């Protein structure tokens, strides 16, 4: 009888040996593709990524419209999820903070928000060691960044820590669709996407890493179990676009 697989701890780019080296490798990858990151996201997803961000933001509109709400967009990259949240907040005075450990990504986010009347605040920070007090935020989101953490359970515990009791969390990330759509998707994701990404960015590593990181990521069932173990009283998964992506939603136990 084969031995059961050990639970996946976190992201593991090729050649890493521990959590620190995994985090360092991920940071270096995203720094290398920062100049073309937005273009590649839109081209490789056929602009569907914009729909996913907006749909996620609408899910949490009941929090965003509150004038005293505090929102953290974790692993914010160049800020697109934070901007979608801001759009849903409309004229409320909700405070939106974007945090990422890649300085190059945050520079791009700051440039994109330079001409906005009310821009999110950008903070360079490690998702596994956030510089915020306990029970500080009403909502924590993360779009296509949580999968790159070196320790998923530690990341969930840190999200739980900075959420107030009853606060909510939304993790948007890739999935693996089933059936014929899944078969077609895997051909595109594993064969076409890495080649196009490498051609446009001029950097091979990140777009070879992407399909492997999605395949490595826990299944929706396992992720929901991990969320509950981390302190979320409620946890659900909503598939987007045939399950190519999906939203993990959770509410911190009171």
Describe the structure.
With 254 residues, the chain is of the alpha/beta class. It has one domain (19-252): Rossmann fold, CATH 3.40.50.150. Helices cover 46% and strands 20% of the residues. The protein has ten helices and seven strands. It is globular.
**What is the helix/strand order?**
HHHHEHEHEEHEHHHEE
Give the distance, in angstroms, between the N- and C-terminal Cα atoms. Answer: 43 Å
Share of β-strand residues? 15-25%
Q: Tell me about the biggest sheet?
A: 7 strands, mixed
Radius of gyration: 17 Å
CATH class: Alpha Beta
CATH fold-level assignment: Rossmann fold
Q: Kindly report the oligomeric state of this protein.
A: single chain
Read across the widest sheet, the strand sequence of neighbours is 3-2-1-4-5-7-6
What is the percent of helical residues?
A: 40-55%
Number of domains: 1
Number of helical segments with 4 or more residues: 10
Q: Which spans of ≥5 residues are poorly predicted at pLDDT below 50?
A: none
Structural class: alpha/beta
Assigned CATH architecture: 3-Layer(aba) Sandwich
Could you give me the name of the CATH homologous superfamily? Vaccinia Virus protein VP39
Count of DSSP strands: 7
From the spread of the alpha carbons, the general shape counts as globular
- Mean pLDDT level: 90
């Amino acid at each position: 009888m084969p031995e059961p697989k050990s639970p996946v701890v976190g992201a593991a780019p090729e050649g890493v040996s521990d959590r620190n080296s995994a985090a360092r490798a991920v940071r270096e990858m995203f720094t290398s593709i920062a100049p073309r990151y937005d273009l590649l996201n839109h081209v490789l997803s056929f602009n569907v990524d914009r729909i996913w961000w907006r749909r996620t933001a609408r899910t949490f509109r009941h929090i965003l419209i509150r004038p005293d709400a505090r929102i953290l967009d974790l692993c914010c990259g160049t800020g697109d999820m934070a901007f979608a949240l801001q759009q849903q907040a409309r004229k409320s005075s909700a405070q939106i903070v974007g945090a990422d450990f890649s300085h190059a990504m945050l520079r791009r986010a700051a440039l994109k928000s330079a001409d906005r009347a009310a821009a999110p605040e950008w903070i360079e920070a490690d998702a596994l060691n956030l510089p915020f007090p306990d029970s500080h935020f009403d909502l924590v989101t993360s779009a296509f960044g949580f999968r790159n953490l070196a320790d998923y359970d530690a990341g969930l515990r840190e999200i739980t820590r900075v959420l107030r009791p009853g606060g909510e969390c939304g993790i948007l990330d890739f999935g693996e669709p089933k059936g014929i759509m899944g078969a077609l998707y895997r051909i595109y994701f594993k064969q076409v996407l890495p080649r196009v990404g490498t051609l446009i960015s001029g950097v091979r590593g990140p777009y070879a890493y992407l399909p492997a990181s999605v395949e490595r990521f826990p299944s929706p069932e396992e992720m929901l179990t991990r969320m509950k173990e981390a302190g979320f009283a409620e946890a659900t998964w909503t598939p987007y676009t045939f399950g190519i992506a999906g939203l993990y939603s959770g509410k911190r136990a009171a």
